[in-house]
Amino acid sequence: MFDAVAERWAGDAGRHEMMVEALTATGDYRVLRRLRTPTPLDRLPDGARLGIVLDVETTGIDAAADEIIELAMVPFAYTIDGQVLGTLAPFHSYRQPKTPIPEEITALTGITDEMVAGQAIDAEAVAAFIANAGIVIAHNARFDRRFVERSWGCFADIAWGCSMAQVDWRAEGFEGTKLGYLLAGIGFFHDGHRATDDCHATIALLGATLPSGSTGLDALLRCARAPSWIIHAEHAPFERKDLLKRRGYSWSGNDGTPPKCWWREVPSDQLDAERAYLNDRVYLYEADPPVRRVTAWERFSDRL
Q1: Taking the alpha carbons of 202, 204, 209, 211 in that order, is the dihedral positive or negative?
Q2: Nearest alpha carbon to residue 69 among 147, 160, 175
Q3: Helices (H) and strands (E) in the chain, counts
């Protein structure tokens, strides 16, 4: 009976592929395939490096006030030139927050109070899981890193990368950076807003060859390895705020260093030009705004 079912499934799959090819050949259709979870490798291949893709679901967007309710980490093997070799067994855990999960978060993620009741995330298990990794990657690392560092200090002692910010998606022909949109651009769809599924989607995206001929992971690693600079437009005139926002500056608020000023991260080769821009368009005199060198060990953290 099993053989008959398998044969029928294989026949259906073959027919489906013929239908996909026929539709695609017309030039009038693009077909998205469901992203399937790959079979994990049983060990790290010889000579490969270990990366971790991480995703969290939370009760809100404020890392200082909201809480993690789900943590997923999917390890993957990769080469120094950014080729993804496969994934390994994942880590997944729920956590019960101090207050009930907001209705809008349950609607978005599908996570209910009943699912997380009595659940906690083992700090020692988390630290052991990332101990041998060379990099942790998230799709919007500025969000995820701030949450996980507040809960587990081990995330402060490892290099980070961001699959959203450290690949030039616009130059590769994409008009947005949301994970589901990018995944559709390489021909797949997935069940979004569940942490493990989002991790696998991110790995698929990083492993894909982009129009430039580079993989997403190669582009990310080259960006992550390069130091950059945070330039603080300290004491910038209030009336220049709209100009700064259009330039890509963000407001640091009370928790920034220094507090309450506009800041922007720029590559090393653009630092002098950015200083000149501030002097010419913002300060209107020869100012000396403070700058700070940033590497993958500090980038995206609350420590900037």
Answers
A1: negative
A2: 147
A3: 10, 12
